[in-house]
Amino acid sequence: MNSEKINGVTQTLWQENELQDLATRAFQGLGLTQEDAGQVSKVLIQADLFGLSTHGLSRIESYGERLQVNGINAQPNITVQSPALALRLVDGDNGVGPLVGMRALQAAMDAAKQCGIGMAFARGSNHFGPISPYSLIAAEQGFASIIGSNATTTIAPWGGSDARLGNSPLGFGVPNPGGNPFLLDMAMSVVARAKIRNAFKRGESIPDTWATDQKGVPTTDPKAALDGFLLPIGGHKGYGLALMVDMFAGLLSNAAYLTHVKSWVDAPDEPQNLGHFFILIDTTKLGSPQWLAARMMDFAEILHDSPPADATRPVIVPGEIELEKMAYQKQNGILLDPAVVELLYHHAKGAPRA
Amino acid sequence: MNSEKINGVTQTLWQENELQDLATRAFQGLGLTQEDAGQVSKVLIQADLFGLSTHGLSRIESYGERLQVNGINAQPNITVQSPALALRLVDGDNGVGPLVGMRALQAAMDAAKQCGIGMAFARGSNHFGPISPYSLIAAEQGFASIIGSNATTTIAPWGGSDARLGNSPLGFGVPNPGGNPFLLDMAMSVVARAKIRNAFKRGESIPDTWATDQKGVPTTDPKAALDGFLLPIGGHKGYGLALMVDMFAGLLSNAAYLTHVKSWVDAPDEPQNLGHFFILIDTTKLGSPQWLAARMMDFAEILHDSPPADATRPVIVPGEIELEKMAYQKQNGILLDPAVVELLYHHAKGAPRA
User: Fold this and answer.
1) Class level of CATH domain B190-231
2) Which of A160, A259, A317 has its CB closest to that of B308?
3) Contact call for A233 and B236, based on CB within 8 A
4) Chain A residue closest to B320 (CA)?
5) Rounded to an integer, what distance in angstroms lies between the CA atom of residue A60 and that of residue A44?
6) What's the pLDDT tens digit per position in B48-94?
């Protein structure tokens, strides 16, 4: 642990292994086994490494509240079935989302190792963090990935006037044996709900393109937006993409979908039965690492070489910002909100002695 | 064949089988074997049935020009390799796109039947029509699908100022044993390039949100837009999605990608080496047809029940417009541009006598 002055305030910077120890103990304090707590922490810390603090260890607040009212099962019996050579059906038994996510990712990678492509459908899950940590783990082992999850309803159908679909995240990864993998992690709304929640916490207004109020009218008030619903990118196209993610993650996985997904805010003690899907492709079956590295480097170079419209902002490839942030924080330490640190210490007190 | 008055003009309406015969003979006239010509015609006629006339038989114009200058190989030797149980590598040998597409679709369905999920990467291909015909064929046989293709560069990287990526189409399908499948077929631009080409042909101006001119400045002139590049949906999100499609369709399939894709307008006599990918999932491995039908009907019902923002425009599910158009045209006949009909007759003259 070391510290740094940021905006005049002394902030604590964490080494990854220190944070892994603390977060693991915190999730143990919430009832998880040491191994499971370690897996969940790994995903959330990876989010913080990427700078995605809204989807990182800050989630211990909502995960913790739900674990404490038994809305999430602290010690689930996660099962994996194989209905076909390359398919896996994962039942998360209402476990913490990143735990179910990691189990499903592993199952899909196993299937892909065997068949070249593998897919896991997960049900009985909860919020599983951001997608890019999973895509990175897959890419580091040579797998390209398409990963999605459904979510609490916050978006109206295109042309409709109430929230009936989730702001389902969709992510992609392509490994690069010679450098940065390609990582794309996006939701179908113009912005994430967490961004509106943060604006509300800071007492700031929001652009009127982000969300509407309860009646479907665009609003600049984050409170009204949190009571209303998010707007999708590209109109009917973003609507269609969000539906597709819910069909693969929820409908086909035998999880809840659309309005069947319970809100963890309104009903924290009830299982959400969220679903995820993981499609993994073993790129080593397509060509040598040298072949892939050469193509990935060339691909990025072509994009970087486009003359920027604004000379001060060169063209980037998806994933670059997160991977740079990760490299910086691995070197200099990870910045965490002091309130999150406090909560981690609070829950860690309940952990069994090592 | 029958006829109907549309906007005061008498138009000829075609029965599907009549059109299949004529189009097959037209592609035979362009040098394809009868079987291959039939496959290509099937895909393009399905596009016309869906009302996607810009991607239907009208394409015989550009396909025909390129076949005549040997830019496309009329009688390709398409090969299929299996580097892993569920993977297929299709080399299209520069054949007509829909022919390569149909071969790759079949290869991926075969792999999915065997393993539950299957994927085909196609290289050495050309423009393969719209995606929804493939998704429909797959859905009718119980397969969910994720399908994409790369394309001639018409979009600038986000923040860049020249066209370095294609307006790559991406499509999804989910079967419904009880009614309409879900079909989503979209490109990453706000509109398709064909829409701008049509506006240009009709001498109409376009909204300034569709594309920019050569210098990256938004334009209402379709000619300037055709010389410039398209704008993506959702800014960096649409940019990221377009890159993902090109990585799966072009980079991983060992086809051309980004600026390596030759323009069929500037170099009609050179192979484009386009790539496609087909991911197929055998939904019969996930549950019974009754289970899937019940969930699909419920899914659509939840969306349809959202009170419309505009009372005259009820909420729809992706694919509904196309499937309704198909049902209507199967009943009443297919409407075709007379210039396309003339071109079909022209090429059919060169077909061998049956």
Assistant:
1) alpha beta
2) A160
3) no
4) A240
5) 9
6) 999 999 899 999 999 999 999 999 999 999 999 999 999 999 999 99
ipTM of this complex: 0.94
Residue type at position B181: P
CA B134 to chain A, closest CA, distance in angstroms equals 16
What's the confidence (pLDDT) of residue A354? 64
pLDDT tens-digit map of A177-225: 999 999 999 998 878 778 899 999 999 999 877 888 877 777 899 999 9
Q: Where are the domains of chain B?
A: 1-68+319-354, 79-183+233-317, 190-231
User: Domain B1-68+319-354 carries which CATH code?
Assistant: 1.10.1530.10
Distance to chain A for B262, nearest Cα, Å: 15
In CATH, the number for domain A1-68+332-354 is 1.10.1530.10
Nearest of A150, A245, A244, A303 to residue B240 by alpha carbon: A303
Residue to substitute from A82, A115, A296, interface B, most B β-carbons within 10 A: A115
Residue B123, pLDDT above cutoff 90: yes
Taking only the tens place, the pLDDT of each residue in A322-341 is 999 999 999 999 999 999 99
Q: For testing the chain A interface, which of B215, B252, B273, B304 should be mutated: the one with the most A CBs within 10 Å?
A: B252
Task: Pull the structure tokens for residue A24.
Answer: 């693991």
Spatial separation of the C-alpha atoms in residues B72 and B128, rounded to whole Å? 12
**CB atoms A115 and B84 under 8 Å:** yes
SS3 B88: strand
CATH topology (fold) of B79-183+233-317:
Ribosomal Protein S8; Chain: A, domain 1 (3.30.1370)
CB-CB contact of A57 with A23 (8 Å): yes
Structure token digits, residue B323: 């499937």
Q: Does B79-183+233-317 match B190-231 in CATH topology?
A: no
Report which secondary-structure segment, H or E, holds B117.
Answer: strand B117-125
Instruction: Note the CATH number of domain A76-189+232-318.
Output: 3.30.1370.60
